[in-house]
Amino acid sequence: MKTERVQVLRRRALAATLGAALLATTVSVPVSAATIEFNPISIGGSISRQQVLPLGWALSETPPETVLYAGGDPTIDFALAVNGLSVPLTAGALYAKVGELTATFHLTLSATPGSDFTVDSGLCPSATVTCTATVTFAPTGSGLRTATVSVSISDLLITGGGSFASMIQLISPFLVSSVESALAVSVSGIGIDTAHGEPGSVTASVEVPSSAACLEVSTSGVDFGTLPLGAVDAAGSPVVRVTNCSGIGATIYARGTDASSGDATWSLTDSGASCADSLGLDAYRLRVVASGSVQLSTDYKSLGAFPGATGADQTARLDMACPGSSGAGSVMSLQLIFLATTEG
What we know:
Blueprint: E1 4-8, H1 15-18, E2 35-37, E3 41-42, E4 47-54, E5 56-58, E6 67-69, H2 74-82, E7 89-90, H3 91-98, E8 101-111, E9 117-120, E10 130-137, E11 143-160, H4 165-183, E12 185-192, E13 215-217, E14 223-227, E15 234-235, E16 240-244, E17 250-256, E18 259-261, E19 264-268, E20 283-289, E21 293-295, E22 301-306, E23 310-319, E24 331-334, E25 336-342
Parallel strand pairs: 1-24, 2-12, 3-12, 19-20
Antiparallel strand pairs: 1-14, 4-10, 5-8, 6-7, 8-11, 9-10, 11-12, 13-16, 15-23, 16-23, 17-22, 17-25, 18-19, 20-21, 20-23
């Protein structure tokens, strides 16, 4: 009997290099923001804000209409055509052909030269999973001041693609450009000329809590071992300790992704159906179990409210796709993703 080895991959880890089952993790920060606005501040003063940035990327989380490559390079155009793809190449079309792609990288940030904004990249050139950059606004004149904080990717490592690996390497510079564009942030602030009593000016301020959303997981991976089609309630190992590492309360959520390997794809479902009735082929189920059980889908589901500095052990459990499904003899890759949001 053919069996399938199911492996959970963390999107922000060196999965292919390490050859280990890795867990996908996220924190409760946006990949990017259209604009970061600073409080008004007097000329000669300064104010700083921190921005958490991801050091990983997943093709499945990229809007499907995103154009990754617009065409124009004969070598790439030919490679795409040979593999049944056309230009402009969108994220959705690439995902439909090759399945999940993930990437890890490092970031270096810079602000528009000569502007009233500076940026400290912090540990972004060397950290893993996420990093925190600091943007400082120090106005040299009154009125609205604007700039752009851009990012530059280095140490890119792309995982996935299977038999399409050579084509993926050809388009990798365009994947870099797409991620860099998504992470670029516009910044703005208002300088106040208090020395001359600027007429009509109104200062404003906002109180920032002492602690923002923070999420920790206790392990870098969960492995379900080797399982036959139709297996149910298989526990992943090890148990994952999920902790709200913030000083304030937060709600923690979890979701899964579809599983894929080469040309095989299983859809994640939270249906109560089983192989004995109406579950059908190429569908699987994933849940996390702590004091209760939460059946996951591709949408986030709440695991409950967690006070600051508290956590819970979560056991990942898997129901394999029904006998007759695709993927026999393959390593199916999927992701388990956690998210924390602060209260208020």
